[in-house]
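Internal tracking record. Fields below are filled automatically when a chain is submitted to the structure queue. Please do not edit lines marked as system-generated. If the sequence contains nonstandard residues, flag them in the REMARKS field before resubmitting.
Queue: standard
Priority: normal
Entity type: single polypeptide chain
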Amino acid sequence: MAMLGAAGSYHLLALAVWALFIAKGTAQEIEVDAQNLVTDDVVVVEGEVATISCRVKNNDDSVIQLLNPSRQTIYFREVRPLKDNRFQLVNFSSSELRVSLSNVSLVDEGKYVCQLYTDPPQEAFATITVLVPPETPTIDADKDVVNEGEEVEFTCSTSGSKPAADIKWLKGDQELQESTSNFEEEEKLFNVTSKLVLRVSRLDDGLPVTCQVEHPAVKDLQAMKDLQAQRYLDVQYKPLVQVTVSYPQGPTREGDTLELTCTANGKPQPTLSWQRLDEEMPERAIISVENLVLESLNKSDNGTYRCRAFNDIGESYDDYLLYVYDVPTTPLPSTTTITSTNIPTITEDSRAGTEVPGSVDHAVIGGVVAVVVFAILCLLIVLGRYFARHKGTYFTHEAKGADDAADADTAIINAEGGQNNSDEKKEYFI
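SYSTEM-GENERATED OUTPUT FOLLOWS
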């Protein structure tokens, strides 16, 4: 009771002084210089310390005091009438009154009044705003397992923040923008819910979907990591199939061994099967799940071989077209083959100390000469037949009448006489 009486006395004294200056200022109506008393607004996180500073420029020893939003005196000069131990004097001088408030809560929000007893009195207001960090978010999905191409809806919720928290979404490291948020206020605190609809593909399988809550009250990196929730995507998809040749590396030829390998990527794990299109699989084919081996290839093996993969989502396949080539024959040399019969032997002349060529096989030389002679004879025969076909027959009428003459003189006379006739001197070629 004594403490309350002392506090009440200080409060009554302050009110009396304040009333005196108001009455005096009202009567004189003196213009106030608002820049003499200054203060600052304070933003503080719930549970931390807020500091209010009332500063005076060019003070003439006027009294400074600090009042709470209910206009109760917290400090009158360096004296604290209000018995709230959370308020502590940090500094008092003729130019400043600085007070700290520890363990700040929402009830401490409001306008605090700095008063300077001048003529007339002055007031400056410091607003304390309390930030309340959000609670750890929760994330839910409408499907635990989703098929490729379908949509899944995620919901992220956080509560108890002031102001309302922001929620952003990430898929892996990629930030997503296609989300909607709703806010609910309850006793100055906000509950936030955000929804994300995502169409998935096989590439999304195993990726985390992260709900990240951001708030001005949370600056520490570790604290920011605590304000997130994750769900991993479980995407099922039909297989992708590929057939590759393990052996041989080049063209497939008769007698070779062919080995094909089938790889399939799907979820759930696909089942594999081999078949030969339009024909039966060769009896000597060896099949071991993803491998197909054909030994001693021949042209009857030509055709299309298919690897088929299927699971609960769907099926797919890949084909390999086999064509068996002939075994290559030994290529003929482009030049005359050199054998031991036409390679000159090298002998050593013991007298001169140098190497000299040996004798050449005379049978080979004779064969070459015979071929050349035969070719020349053939050419002469062809030329003779050609000229014989184009020679023709030559006829003349100069001796016309000689065949009917009785003797040689008469024949000559008849022949000479025929020269006068121009028509009889004509020549005919047949």
